[in-house]
Amino acid sequence: MKLPVKRVFAMVLIMAFLIVAGTFAYYYLARASVFPAGLVQTNGRLEGDKVIVASKVPGRIVTLLAREGDVVTAGQVMARLDDETARARLAQARAGWEMAKARMESARSSLNVLRQEVPTNIATAEAGVKAAEALLEKARAAEEQARRDAQRFRTLAEAKTVDAKTAEQAELAWKVADRELEGARAGLLQARQALRDARLGPARINTLEADSTASEAAVREADARLAEVQTALNDLTIVSPAAGTVTTRFADLGEVVNVGMPLFELVDLDKLYLKAYLPEVQIGKVRLGLPAQIYTDAFPDQPFSAKLRYIASRAEFTPKEVQTPDERTKLVYAMKLYLDNNPDHSLTPGLPVDAVIRWQEDAPWAKPRW
Q1: 336/98 Cα distance (integer angstroms)
Q2: What is the pLDDT along the chain (370 residues), one digit of tens a residue?
Q3: Per-domain residue ranges for the chain?
Q4: Strand extents, DSSP E, 195-330
Q5: What CATH topology corresponds to 86-229?
């Protein structure tokens, strides 16, 4: 009895499907059965902590010293902006600082001199007053004696006891002594005025001290201004804030950049990590510090050692990058597996990798199986 062709074709398709399904199931179960207990596997992409290098000030790029793939160290110059205007401002600020400093030093010098002169001037003025008082006393005594002599000789001349010339000489001597007395009085007034001026010295010191303090404040202000301008000039030199590898360059030579505009993106290739997700039913097997091995298609026979250093405290639905819709409905925990080392920087961010985490110490290592 001959079967219809369509029925035969359908039976062949069913048998072929059963054979393929059985083979796949056998292969999968066989591989799963030999995967050691004590291991969990996951996958994801390598990532690294990114550092964005940006400009603090606006300007035009005149020197570009770093490009993609360059390895830079912390503090290394990566670019320079036009600094002609900033250098002119720096020269002006430095001139202002030097002028303020010269005024301060002059005020300090004058103050030191005045502090030394005031006690000496007061002592000299006091001695001058005493000397003037002594001269006044002497001139007063001489004037009194000359006056008496003149009166005596005038009486004698009237009595014809002495000649008129002698009496005139006595009168003249009295006038001279009187003028000397007036001069001594004026000298005493001058000496007392000099003493009063000398005693104003402490007040002058106070005034000069205030001037010196003001000049010191002016120097500090000029110094702050100079530091501000110097900082602005330094900001025109773009340096790397950390060691890493330049993964992206956002600006070109001659381009005008604004404040905060990204110029470079850095990643430390010695601190890469795999961000992966573990199903909620398996999260109880892992803990921080567990060893792991990371595999990549580029180096299929070379596992890279890593450690589990981060486990999220809350579960989440599997992120969108997971391909199948049914997997995206599962609750998972985010994890980070940090590479112990990256020899020759052979691994880079964005590389898809598989990972095996050993949560039992005696479990033998095995490659990931999917």
Answers
A1: 57
A2: 444 555 655 665 677 666 655 555 444 444 444 568 899 999 999 999 899 999 999 999 999 999 998 999 999 999 999 999 999 999 999 999 999 999 999 999 988 998 898 899 889 989 999 999 999 899 999 989 988 988 888 888 888 787 888 888 888 988 998 899 899 899 989 999 998 988 888 888 898 889 989 999 999 999 999 999 999 999 999 999 999 999 999 999 999 999 999 999 999 998 999 999 988 888 889 999 999 999 998 888 899 999 999 999 888 887 755 544 445 447 899 999 999 999 888 898 889 999 999 999 888 998 887 6
A3: 51-82+234-267, 86-229
A4: 237-239, 244-249, 256-257, 262-267, 273-279, 291-296, 299-311, 316-317
A5: Helix Hairpins (1.10.287)
